[in-house]
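ugh ok so i messed up the first submission bc i forgot one of the chains. this is the corrected input, ALL of the components this time, i swear. 406 residues overall. if the numbers dont match what u have on ur side tell me asap before i send this to the collaborators (the ones from the other lab, u know who)
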Amino acid sequence: MRCRKAHWYLSARCDDTLSEKQRRDLAAHLDECPSCRREAFYFSEIKGQTAGVEKIRARADFNLRLQAKINAWEVEQETLRDHAPSSWRTLRELSVWAAHYFAGLGNILFGQRRFAVVGVVTALLTIIIWTGYDSDEQLVDNTAALTQELADLNQIGYELRLETEVADPLRDYLISGVSLSDYTSPRSQPNYVMPTIPAEQVNAQLIF
Amino acid sequence: METQKDIDHGLMRRIQQDDFAAFEELVERYKDRLVNVLFRMLNERNEAEDLVQETFLRVYKHRQEYDFTYCLSTWIYTIALNLAKNELRRKKKFKFFSLFDLQAKGVELEDTKPGPQSLKIILEKAIATLPVKYKTAFVLRDVDQLSYEEVAQILEVPLGTVKSRVNRARAILKDELRPKLEERRALSKGTLVPVRTM
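and heres the new structure output, hopefully the right one now
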């Protein structure tokens, strides 16, 4: 047997995994090789010393600290479960908000009701489809919120258009070189009333 | 007769049914062994304990995902060793020294005192300086006394690779300890007279 192979066997001997034949071969080699006998001594010493290396144990409060961490995690999980919106709810809210802005911006920018109508229909459909998984109360809340939102946005749209009606005669005055002091705004008239959208009109849009 | 694996699986089934007493029993079975192994890996007791706690926390969090075709001990050791490897990688990345660290490692400072050191202390220091892949295999096999098969499963390497790494670790330790071992050998043969030092 060569010394290199004997070294491999010496490590295996530490684990007691040598076969009977391997054990005999190794013993025969050790009898005639002082260098490998020295190596065998080293290996057995290391094995013995390693087994006697101090065993580090967990501290006495280990379990308490672990328990505290688990409790903290469980509380965190419960909080998340109670307060985090479900994915359905998040999607629903996103779609309703998208519909609101679509309707409102269409009305404000272009003064055209068809954008508002498309927005309302989209919003209602999404609410009806998705609140199918939720309570009737939620459906009522969502519809009421949408109605209010649309009323507000349409009001803003009307007011903006009114401003345009006021601004156009003012521009004409300025171009024609007339002094600004000669210009009278319709709002300054004593019996001027700010136009508002009739409630029936808003409801009519929603019914449509 | 009930094997260790059967006992572990019984505990895990109870843990899956939210039996916290079973979880405590599992912690008792493994905490000291894991702290010892991770301490040998990291050479820092507080870090070792923190990582063992993190290991048990993960076991608890993912208790429903446990696959009963594997040994529970293998699963737990794999989690713990992966955490230790990540920690070692992080330390290597952000390597810095502070006085507080040195004070915390009182044992190491004591070891640097001049004078004769016992073979056990030299061995512990030599284990601490082994390359990680050899150290992991050596600690699991020789310090924690796991079987080669278990070590192979935990490290996810072939059996032959584990044997080779353990053998390599022993060879490195043997070279590190050679002067001290030679001294002991001479003493055991009676060619050297021990000298008591003050």
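quick check: Chain A touches chain B through 32 residues (CB under 8 Å). that seems consistent at least. Chain A has eight helices and no strands.
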